[in-house]
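Quick illustration, no need to memorize.
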Amino acid sequence: MAMKSMTGFARADAELGDVRFVWEIKSVNSRGLEMRLRLPPGLDRLDPEIRRLTRDHLSRGSCQLSLQLDRVGSASNLVVNEAALAAVTDAARHLATETGIDAPSADGLLAIRGVLEERGLDALDDADAVDRTVLDALAACLAALVAARAEEGGRLAAILTDQLDTIETLIEAAADLAAKAPEALLTRLAEQVARLTGEASLDPQRLHQEAVLLATKADIREEIDRLTSHITAARKLLTDDGVIGRRLDFLAQEFNREANTLCSKSYDKELTAIGVELKAVIDQLREQVQNLE
């Protein structure tokens, strides 16, 4: 099963008699599965089945499902309400007789609200056939949406892989600096003490002890180990089947937590620069992860 995005669009239609049923589904990211339905009058009875079918295909995402009716060929969606037309015609004739004004034209009568109506499903006597046609078209539309979300998921997977590669490179650079920390701290401490005291000759043993204490406080090996572990876990998730968005989002938060600690322990500008770049890439990673199902 391919990784899937929560963003997608699909369209499918089916015909029954002179009626074409057209489904359109749009989906965007969401914490859970949300559905908003727009159904023609007379098909509200299918609401529970439509929701069940959608849950069978999708696990997460905010989805707008819209069903539209069209007439095939020369058939019109509009019909004349004969009773309403007769009523307004009689009223118009009476008004013309009483006031002497011109009687309204045919197009004027048809423009009156309620005279022309949108034809519903009354012409289709077989309700079961209507339901089957609508639900079969919905299943086809949902399958197309799943395929579109999987295609987008493939593109996201490539982006996430590149971002994980960048994070890994930055972690390796931070690890190299961590290995040199004791010597670098010793040199910097000696320079600072000499500058403050004006003494060129200092006790090497005392300086070494102080440098060790500073190195202990600035030790980022635990953060490096945890970040490396998170990289391995994230790469494994990218190859797993099923819904992985929430788990990757949690890992992205853990990445960010370790990067913050690394920055707080930084003892020189180079390590700080690595930490800042690491946080930027992690933010980009989490932004992309938000779109995964």
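Residues 8-75+123-149 form a domain with the Ribosomal Protein S5; domain 2 fold (CATH 3.30.230).
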